[in-house]
Amino acid sequence: IPPVLCQEQDVETVHGSVHVTMCGTPRGNRPAILTYHDIGLNHKTCFNPLFNFEDMQEITQHFAVCHVDAPGQQDGAPSFQAGYMYPSMDQLAEMLPGILKQFGLKTVIGMGTGAGAYILTRFALNHTEMVEGLVLINVNPCAEGWMDWAATKISGWTNALPDMVISHLFGKEEIHSNHDLIHTYRQHIINDMNQTNLHLFVNSYNSRRDLEIERPVPGINVVTLQCPVLLVVGDSSPAVDAVVECNSKLDPTRTTLLKMADCGGLPQVSQPAKLAEAFKYFVQGMGYIPSASMTRLMRSRTASGSSVTSLEGQRSRSHTGEGTRSRSHTGEGTRSRSHTGDGARNRSHTDTRIELTPNSASNAEQSSPKSMEVSC
Fold first, then answer.
1. What whole-number distance in Å separates Cα of residue 50 and Cα of residue 27?
2. Which tens digit of pLDDT belongs to each residue from 209-244?
3. In sequence order, what DSSP letters do the residues of 72-134 get, joined into one string?
4. How many CB atoms neighbour CB 147 within 10 A?
5. CA distance linking residue 368 with residue 376, whole number of Å
6. Taking Cα atoms as reference points, which of 206, 188, 195, 197 lies closest to residue 16?
7. Residues linked to residue 260 through DSSP beta bridges, in sequence order
């Protein structure tokens, strides 16, 4: 795959300047991929491990990629002037149409993590026509509860900002066991991020309002995402409950929940192979990049002998009540295995099989469609 040329520039928007990195050339007949990072990160530390991964590059060669850094979060960012009002989460979302216009992008597939996932969701709710699909990692659709807010304020007096950010990005299990990863990101937060600017971004995220999305009900007009959505969370991520909550508020016929075994707060860093594979199926389900062009990915999967199931094929079968549904409701299949730490979890390092089971929202709603839950 030939190297992709990237250009960096500051784009003026309705709520101030924002640093953007554009990789590749936009193609008029297909969306660009637009990324937005979490607090304590920028586009490099959040997404480089995924986008530099060979399997992911085979996918992204078909798209332009637009990386957005939240104001003041890019490498070497200067401090804002005294009295600067940092944009709210809603205002950060409203900066995105100006970025699309600047680069001549009509539509995007968004990929966001944490705060970035919230911003992209708000953008998609306000500008449905600009967003063809969303990959949301660790998304929290709810405003911060007052107990969380109080805990943040109190810990802010006693703990350093890096500790607060680390506990947002990573689960307790990771913090205690994966010392090298935590040390790397702690050093990045301390040494590479402008601390004043980071504090402003953290405060903006902690002041977010509820997205007020609801699962669609026939005959009732509700606010929800209109595009295909892939929700992603690691099984030991601090965001598991928030992502499951978000899943319950989205259209089940357009939503897939991917819960990764042996994975913590940053699946794009710790499990890039699985996320690249899931992203491949996601964009193929939207009608982009036929499988014939995915030579290396298919070769590596065939060579490993793993059986990879198409998201779309499994999805249509599960809605007819066949396939995996009966298994998941009897407590067998991949879901119970992955949560008990057997089966899928132990298998994940040697076999990148992606298995799909419908997401059992509640047994009282058996007749209604369920969104997909993927365990891998």
1. 22
2. 999 999 998 888 899 999 999 999 999 999 999 999
3. T-STTPPPPPTT--PPPHHHHHHTHHHHHHHTT-S-EEEEEETHHHHHHHHHHHH-GGGEEEE
4. 8
5. 25
6. 197
7. 234
